[in-house]
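Quarterly update from the structural biology core.
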Amino acid sequence: MPLESDTLVDLPIASPSSNGRALTLDGIKKPIESELGQFKGYFRDAMRSDVFLLDKIIQYLLRQKGKQLRPILVMLSAQAAGGIQESTYRGAALVELLHTATLVHDDVVDGADRRRNMFSINALWKNKIAVLLGDFLLSRGLLLALDHKDYTFLHIVSDAVKRMSEGEILQIEKARKLDIDETTYYQIISDKTASLLAACTSLGAASAGASEKEVETFKAIGQALGMAFQIRDDLFDYGIADVGKPLGNDLQEKKLTLPLIHALSNVDPKERKKIIRIVRKKVKSKKDIAEVSAFVHAQGGINHATDKMNAFANEALTLLENLPFTDARQSLADLVQFTINRKK
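Predicted structure, tokenized:
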């Protein structure tokens, strides 16, 4: 399906049925609405510092409105696993501190000057302050767990940090060589993205006093959700407008994601070399991006990636169906569907 350079194409998402209900984050959050309100204050307190400049930067950081997907996952998982406890707030704060620290560090690595429609920390206070802020946030999370002897939480989060680092470095390595295959792609997104969502669902279940086997089930739910989440994110590179990142952004950074990987596997060496030559360009024009996008569509890359995304989503939904029915379980299922149908 050829694309003009300024054409935007919506993606064919074949998601599991939501029984005709409109899925919104506000609706998904309803079973934990009051607890999320309490969490906001808890999280602000967890970030406080007596150092004036640091506290000033933290107040600015708190104004960057995100979806709070990770605390939502922790709390819904806890509610579905037996009920939200005091330790659930600590688990949610720990994972949100970790996530915020990684975003601050990512902006330094990427040289990004915007985050959620606001100037990034490094753009306003330079790289040194941004790196130190990220370190501070990570240390606050670790101390929060240590002060309450939440050693299980520390193990879950430490494993996620290790996997996230490995996934990022493997992706950088493959971006240099441009030799990534589908198996390696799954390894990258499993470590880079899914590991943190798996940590969220694990933390929630563990905080509710779930058994080791039950925690593993919740971990598998978060892992499958994370895989679907990242594939959806990668699909945005090929024709969806207003998603919070420029169209063709992954291509500009020489990242081979699932739609392109599959498309390249379907063509002869000559055609593959032609596309790889474009991907290798330091700066790509709109015409270059359009050409690669048209190639991906024509070779079935979008449909293949969409099928894989839906397979991971269905894996998460099947695991959820094995849990006792609660409003929280239903919200987790709705969150899976919301994830694969989101427009940004």
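The chain has one domain: 25-153+163-341.
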